[in-house]
Design brief:
Layout lengths: L2 H23 L6 H6 L3 H9 L2 H17 L3 H22 L5 H27 L1 H22 L11 H30 L17 H16 L4 H34 L4 H10 L4 H13 L2 H7 L1
Helix pairs in contact: 1-3, 1-4, 3-5, 3-8, 4-5, 5-6, 6-7, 6-8, 8-10, 9-10, 10-11, 10-12
Length: about 300
Amino acid sequence: MSQQSKGGWKDGLLACGGFLFLLVSLFIPVLQFVALWLLPLPFLLLKAKRPWSTTLIPFGMLIVWLLFYTVPLFICLFLFAWLTGSVMGHLVRKEDATGTDTVLGGLVAGLVSSWIILLVGQLGFQLFSQLTTVWDQQWAETVRLMGKNGIALQDAGLSLSVAFPILLFMLIVPSVVATFLVASRLLERAGFPRKSLPPFYEWRLPRIFFTAYLLLMIASLVQSGNEVGGDWILGFLYLMQILMVLQGCSFALFLLQRRRGRVGWGSHALALVLAVPLSPLFMLLGFIDTGIDLRGRLAKK
C-alpha cells in the first residue's frame, strides 16, 4: 500500500471517528446543538484534503455499522452530513470557488439530501407519518406540562406540515454556516487559502425570493380550505417571512454602515435582538430590499 493510500485510509478513519463523536455528543445536553450543526465537518475536512474516492471509506464503514445498529434517525443524519460535507469540501478544494459558493453549495446539497431522505423514507417505511405521530405526541406532552404551570395551549397545535420547512431551515442553514466557519479556520492552519463570507450587511436575497413570497401569499389565500396543501404552503410562507426579517436586518445594517462607515458585532447583535419585537418593520424592509435594488441606487449617489 502506497503512502498516499495509507494517508487516505487514515483520514477516512478520522472522519468516521469524528462523526461518531459528534453523533454521541447529541445525547449530551450542553453539546447537543453544537454537535448537530457540525455533523458535516468531518466529511468537509476529508474531502478538502482527499479525492472523492477517499470519501467512500467512511461512507462504506458507517453504512455497514449503522445497518447493524439500525436507527433510522442516525442513518438520515449520516447521509445528510456525508453529502453536505463532501460537496462543501469539494468546493473548498477548488481554487476558483469563493466562500459564498461553498456555503451555497452546502445549502443546496443539504436541501437535496434532506428531501431525498424524506422521500425514500416515506416510500420505504412511512417516515413522515411516523414523524407526525411523534410530533403530535410531543405536542400533547407540552400542552400537559404547560397546563400544570398555568399556561393554556391549544390541544390542536402546530401541525408538522407547517413546522417542517422551518425545522429543515433550522437544521440546514446553521449547520452549513457553522461547519464552514469552523472548517475555514482549521484548513487555514493546515495551509489552505482562507475563504470567507461577505459581511452580513452585504447579504441580499435574489429577486426570485420576492416573487416566491408573493406567490406563496396568493396560494395561501387560495388554498385556505385545503388542510394538507394549505399547511405546507403556510409552512413555506412562515419560512419566507423569517428570511424577509433577516433580510431586513441586513438592509438596516447596510444603511447604518453607509452612515457610520463601519458596523461592529454589537450592531449586528442589536439588530437581531430588535428583529423579534419589530419583526413587521424588518419584514417590510426585507421585502423592499429583495424586490427593489435600493442598494444599487444608494451606491450611485
